[in-house]
Design a protein that fits this description.
The complex is a heterodimer. By secondary structure, chain A is an alpha+beta fold. Chain A has helices at about 1-15, 100-115, 115-120; strands at about 35-40, 50-55, 65-70, 75, 80-85, 90-95, 125-130, 135-140, 150-155, 160-165, 175-180. The longest helix of chain A has 16 residues, at about 1-15. Mean pLDDT of chain A is about 80; it is low at about 10-15. Chain B is an alpha+beta fold. In chain B, strands 7, 8, 9, 10 and 11 form a five-stranded antiparallel beta sheet that branches. Chain B has a four-stranded antiparallel beta sheet with strand order 3-4-2-5, with helices on both faces. Classes of the chains: A alpha+beta, B alpha+beta. At the A-B interface, strand 5, strand 6 and helix 2 of A face helix 7 and helix 8 of B.
């Protein structure tokens, strides 16, 4: 009987809190390119800007986003720098100059690796799970992240992260969706 | 022999008056003196453009004020990092953190944003705008935040970013590089201001210790200045104390009367105070080097009372003065004459050095004449000179000095003349490994080349700016050839008026531009009306252009760069532009020659040529001083034989010193040369006394005693200096010690037994 009560409490707890624990199931494969579609919207745009391309989460931790349409641009985010290649020119910017980008990079890696503790350190998390599908809403605790993210919602299925939606200050937002057949 | 009460009373009055005078003088000096450490104050007037730039930039150049702060391991993860950054950024010691400036986090300076339309060309054809808009979509794909959106709306062609990129170091930043976080800060004070740099270093060290829990490693010209100054101060203090103790021990041994020791130090103190009072009254600023070298040259005055002391046992307090006075007066006047000649050296610093040492020597002479004998009655016991030897025959012969002179000249001739040390950095003790790390950090951060810069001259302001702009393609070619890694012309921030009016003229009318933008936006998801801020700016600049000049940048982070970039000297306008990674300066100069303007300024070569000119000027001044001294000697000495012996011996002592320095050290620096001036003064003193006609054997033995005590005390004091780890002090110490030894030996053996 005691055991049953304990179990019930546990279940009730997880359903009510809907915390970051749900994110621990995410486990992203490394070095496997996946297609993505991203919509970005802001006050300058008439309609959302649709970007498509390929994402790679490399085994050394670097995240590469290769945009192929409507423009060509490649971004690589690693521990120490952000590299931007456009029109055959590439520029490396050291991340220690950009604390907000550094923290966003850490958050993305934590999401891809299912590191719930790291996420909770930066965000207040509420989550839901239906069968294999899950979703979570992340609100940053404070600066510097709050300067570029008002709210983040992520969703996926099982160990795969499929969608990241970011609301930004000033009404901008962006939604990145992974084609499910080859999910991260 | 007990002194009469009247004599004692008189001595009390004199002593009291002297002490009061000293206190008053010290108070005046301390309250009025304003010390400067500005090296340019001490250098002669620069002649070439390169030297002018060097002197003006001494420690002021864009790269020289950078301080590289390597944070302790693990500081990246410290939650206190933002607080530390704010502490450094808002500190009074720094103009800012350079890392911020080139970063995405940094703002575009207001002045740059306001003037962006005048600072860069933009392709405003429909095709050009279409290409720009595609790039702006890529910018949105990179960063979808407010700052980026404002930038796009106000500046679709990104001219402000073009200007910033043109000013950025072309040097590729190392990807991984150090695992430690490096910040680059720019100090407010110039690199040579040791006290201000010390304060900045202390501030950073303390702030990093407090916030990041470890000691930072610091690199940069200012850091070395601070360390050098601290090292010189502590070492000089330690060695001065040791030297004083050594001199006191020698004097105690020589006279066996501690009051005599104190009394014999009085003239040099009075001399120093008098010289300093004179300078403070005459100049608004006194250079630190003046005082340091001035007190070195004043070392000769320690000898004056010693001659008197040595003769006390034979002649008594009154007569001893009469015995030594004529020789003493001639020696001191001759020395003062040579010292005053330094004042003709042409720079304020040298003038101060000459006046200080000349006045101080005269004051010390006066003190020996009028103060010391009055106070001598206070010596409660008789002075009993120790180690007074037998009399040496007074017959002078010229074989010794002539032989030594011939050998020393032959040695110098065989080495192709004296080798001069013109590279002042050789005297700055910075560990090699730190300089290597310094160079690495500079390369990693793309700091400007600190040795080379590009100067362009023209008769007028507009002309020089236009001439500089014309070098754009030349520098691009030099970069393509690999002669340089890049350049930032000052005209990026200060375009010529011609170029600015040309840019204004090329902006389309607002209605036309609006139509072009509307066509360029077709097919892109952008709203057509978003460029209102840009159209507004174009309308303003075409209707009423606020042309860019030096004042545009006042109070902006770019102010320094612009202010040092354009200047007028003697009716000539000069621009100075930054070069990066200069590997083949001669090739670059050849290309500039072909283009008809522009000079690669090699600051190191300029510093060497400046030192060379300085030395030549000083040698000339010294020759004048030596001639004046010789004329004075010839007139007062009366005996041609004695004149020949004294001048010959002094010359041989100096040439021998230089020859030995060449063999042992390889070269002689400016500081060595100044030390040689002291050697001349000292050996003249020894020579004059050694060549005197003495009344009897006892008098001759006492004179020799005095010369030996003088030589021994000076020798010991400067030997202590010679072992200093600070090259400047060691150079002065070894030169003077060698010179004193040479002079003493020459005078001793220049007389037939």
């Amino acid at each position: 009987m005691r055991r049953l009560i304990a179990l019930l409490i546990l279940i009730a707890d997880s359903a009510a809190a809907g915390d970051a624990a749900i994110l621990t199931q995410v486990n992203t494969r490394r070095d496997v390119p996946v297609d993505f579609v991203e919509l970005r919207m802001n006050r300058l745009l008439r309609e959302p800007l649709e970007l498509t391309g390929v994402l790679v989460y490399a085994s050394d931790g670097a995240l590469t986003k290769e945009i192929t349409s409507p423009i060509r641009e490649s971004l690589t985010l690693s521990d120490t720098y952000l590299e931007v290649s456009r029109d055959g020119r590439s520029r490396k910017l050291r991340l220690n100059r950009m604390p907000d980008v550094t923290e966003l990079y850490a958050v993305l890696r934590a999401l891809l690796d299912g590191d719930a503790d790291a996420i909770e350190a930066s965000f207040a998390v509420t989550s839901q799970q239906t069968g294999e599908s899950w979703s979570a809403t992340l609100v940053p605790h404070g600066m510097p992240l709050a300067g570029i993210v008002t709210e983040m919602s992520v969703s996926g299925r099982g160990s795969r992260l499929l969608r990241i939606h970011i609301e930004q200050p000033g009404g901008s937002w962006q939604t990145l969706t992974i084609t499910e057949s080859q999910a991260l | 022999m007990k002194p009469a009460a009247a004599e004692l009373r008189r001595a009390g009055y004199v002593g009291g008056a002297v002490a009061a005078g000293m206190v008053l003088a010290a108070w005046y000096i301390l309250s009025q003196a304003r010390l400067t450490v500005d090296l340019s104050y001490f250098l002669p007037p620069p002649e070439s453009i390169a030297e002018q730039i060097l002197v003006e930039r001494l420690g002021q150049g864009p790269g020289s004020k950078l301080m590289f702060i390597v944070l302790p391991a693990g500081a990246d993860a410290s939650p206190a990092l933002p607080a530390l950054r704010d502490a450094l950024r808002s500190s009074e010691h720094f103009t800012g953190l350079m890392n911020d400036f080139a970063s995405g986090e940094a703002q575009i300076p207001d002045a740059l944003w306001r003037s962006r339309l005048l600072l860069a060309d933009a392709d405003l054809t429909v095709d050009g705008l279409r290409a720009a808009i595609r790039s702006r979509l890529a910018d949105i794909a990179l960063l979808n935040d407010s700052r980026m959106l404002d930038l796009i709306a106000g500046d679709p062609a990104m001219t402000a970013m073009t200007v910033l990129e043109a000013m950025e170091s072309p040097v590729e930043l190392a990807a991984g590089g150090s695992d430690r976080l490096v910040w680059v800060a720019e100090t407010r004070a110039p690199a040579f201001d040791g006290n201000a740099q010390r304060a900045a270093v202390d501030f950073v060290t303390e702030a990093v210790m407090e916030q990041a829990g470890g000691t930072p490693e610091l690199f940069g010209a200012g850091v070395y200045t601070a360390e050098l100054q601290a090292a010189v101060q502590s070492d000089a203090q330690k060695r001065s104390l040791l030297a004083t103790v050594a001199i006191v021990v020698v004097l105690l041994f020589a006279y066996r009367n501690w009051r005599a020791v104190i009394l014999s130090l009085t003239p040099v103190v009075i001399g120093g105070l008098a010289g300093a009072v004179f300078l403070v009254a005459l100049y608004t600023q006194v250079h630190g080097i003046t005082l340091a070298f001035g007190f070195t040259l004043l070392g000769v005055a320690i000898d004056y009372p010693l001659h008197y002391m040595s003769h006390l046992p034979r002649d008594g307090k009154r007569q001893a003065l009469n015995t030594v006075w004529p020789t003493l007066r001639l020696g001191a006047l001759t020395t003062a004459c040579a010292y005053f000649a330094l004042a003709l050296g042409g720079s304020d610093g040298l003038a101060q050095l000459g006046l200080f040492s000349g006045v101080a020597v005269l004051a010390a002479l006066a003190a020996t004449r009028w103060v010391v004998p009055e106070l001598a009655v206070l010596l409660d016991a008789d002075v009993r000179p120790a180690a007074v030897g037998r009399r040496i025959s007074g017959r002078l012969h010229n074989v010794v000095w002539a032989g030594v002179l011939i050998v020393a000249v032959a040695v110098l001739a065989a080495r192709g003349g004296p080798a001069w040390q013109s590279d002042l950095s050789a005297l700055v003790p910075v560990e090699k490994s730190r300089l290597v790390r310094d160079a690495e950090l500079r390369a990693q951060w793309g700091a400007p080349d600190i040795r080379y810069l590009l100067a362009v001259t023209a008769p007028g302001r507009e002309q020089v700016l236009q001439a500089t702009e014309r070098l754009d393609p030349v520098l691009a070619e030099a970069k393509a050839e690999g002669f340089i890694e890049g350049s930032t012309l000052v005209t990026v921030l200060l375009p010529s008026r011609a170029r600015q009016t040309d840019r204004v003229a090329r902006y389309p009318a607002p209605a036309d531009l609006q139509a072009r933008l509307a066509r360029a936006v077709e097919g892109a998801p952008l709203r057509a009306d978003i460029f209102a801020p840009f159209l507004q700016s174009v309308a303003e600049v075409t209707a009423n252009p606020d042309y860019v000049d030096v004042d545009t940048w006042r109070d902006s982070p770019l102010e320094d760069l612009v202010a040092t970039g354009l200047s007028e000297r003697n009716g000539k306008w000069i621009t100075e532009s930054v070069l990066y990674g200069v590997s083949q300066p001669d090739e670059l100069q050849r290309m500039l020659d072909a283009a008809g303007n522009g000079a690669v300024v090699d600051l190191r070569a300029a510093s060497e040529s400046l030192v060379t000119e300085y030395r030549e000027r000083m040698l000339l001044v010294l020759a004048v001083g030596a001639l004046a001294a010789a004329v004075l000697l010839g007139w007062r000495l009366g005996s041609p034989g004695r004149l020949l012996w004294v001048v010959g011996s002094v010359t041989a002592a100096i040439v021998l010193t230089i020859a030995v320095k060449m063999i042992v050290g390889g070269s002689l620096s400016l500081f060595g040369l100044i030390a040689c001036i002291l050697v001349a003064g000292l050996s003249l003193d020894y020579g004059l006394f050694s060549s005197r006609d003495e009344a009897d054997d006892y008098a001759a033995a006492l004179t020799r005693h005095a010369v030996s005590v003088c030589a021994a005390s000076t020798f010991i004091a400067f030997v202590l200096l010679a072992f200093s780890p600070i090259p400047v002090l060691a150079e002065i110490g070894s030169t003077v010690a060698l010179g004193v030894a040479a002079a003493w030996l020459l005078m001793r053996f220049g007389k037939a037994a």
